[in-house]
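Researcher: Here's the sequence for the chain we discussed earlier.
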Amino acid sequence: MKKTIFALIAACMAFVSCDLINDKDTIVGTWESTSISLIYDGKTVTMGPDEIKMVWEFKEDGKYVQTSYSYDKDGNESSDPAQNGTYKTEGTKITITPEGNDARTGDYLLKSDVLELTLPVIEGTVMKIVLARK
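Model: Thanks. This is the structure I predict for it:
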């Protein structure tokens, strides 16, 4: 009887462990912004995807590619050259290091298919990016 109970507990633990480690528990993947806010001097300016959009691809090897798109009043799209770099997460912190630039450490919050990044831009200014998994 004890062996049967132990086997059931072990099977449940294996099932739960596998269920907890899935794609929704990692930022690895492609994300598209739903809003971008600049916060400075107690003010917040928010832009939606019809004005500016960022696409981030976080790779398993700790590298990322980020592309920004902007739209004119007629809806015509233009994009900046893609930015490459590395990233590292630890707890609720993320460190982004664009190629050729200094590292920036901010906060991240992952809720299933929504990722929020809060990163310093320049002294006294923070950018909050809300992204949806593609």
